[in-house]
Amino acid sequence: MSVAIKRLQNELKDFNNPTYSNFFVITPQENPLEWHFTMKGGKGTDYAQGIYHGKIIFPENYPNSSPPRIFFLNQSGRFQINVQLCIWLVSHDSNDKWNPNNHICSYLMGLYSFFESSENHTGRINSDSQTRQQLAIESNNFICPTCREIKLLFKN
């Protein structure tokens, strides 16, 4: 088993912590270096009624290489779909900001701040409040080809 796979298996256990209850992570069996994540929209924001789904693609020599690549797969009014995000926490063109000692769950938590941020980065969309709220409602109907109906992930 590779170092990357061992590390990712340990990091996956971090999501059992109640701190990450707004996230659900799936690792497709056919590719252990790809994670799918689903996150609830932040309370009190235009995204509050939404469920946002994306994927993380880890390099083969994770974490001692370039950062993982993060993509959103459904509309939010904030991030372009299927476009690699370039944000300060995980940047595809600035490896000096990637810290292999941090766990991916902390980077996913950082995505919350980017939903409400006005910071410019690759993959950012400027939508008005009404559009974001409408897309939040519509996001609940997104079906991922890998994970299926994502709204079922958060049902009690």
What this model shows, in words?
- By secondary structure, the chain is an alpha+beta fold.
- It contains three helices and six strands.
- Strands 1-2-3-4 form a four-stranded antiparallel beta sheet. A two-stranded antiparallel sheet has the order 5-6.
- The model is unreliable at about 90-95 (pLDDT under 50).
Overview features:
156 residues, alpha+beta, four-stranded antiparallel β-sheet, two-stranded antiparallel ribbon, 3 helices, 6 strands, 23% helix, globular
Task: List strands and helices in order, with pairings.
Blueprint: H1 3-14, E1 23-26, E2 34-40, E3 51-57, E4 69-72, H2 104-116, H3 129-139, E5 143-144, E6 148-149
Antiparallel strand pairs: 1-2, 2-3, 3-4, 5-6
Structure summarized in a few sentences:
This protein is 23% helix and 17% strand. With 156 residues, it is an alpha+beta fold.
SS field, number of helical segments: 3
Contiguous low-pLDDT stretches (5 residues minimum) are 89-95
Average of the residue pLDDT scores:
84
Task: Give the overall shape.
Answer: globular
Sheet with the most strands?
4 strands, antiparallel
- What's the N-to-C terminus distance? 34 Å
Helix/strand order, N-terminal first: HEEEEHHEE
Number of extended strands: 6
Helix content: 10-25%
Strand content: 15-25%
Class computed from helices, strands and strand pairing: alpha+beta
User: How do the strands of the widest beta sheet line up side by side?
Assistant: 1-2-3-4
Q: Over the alpha carbons, how many angstroms does the gyration radius reach?
A: 15 Å
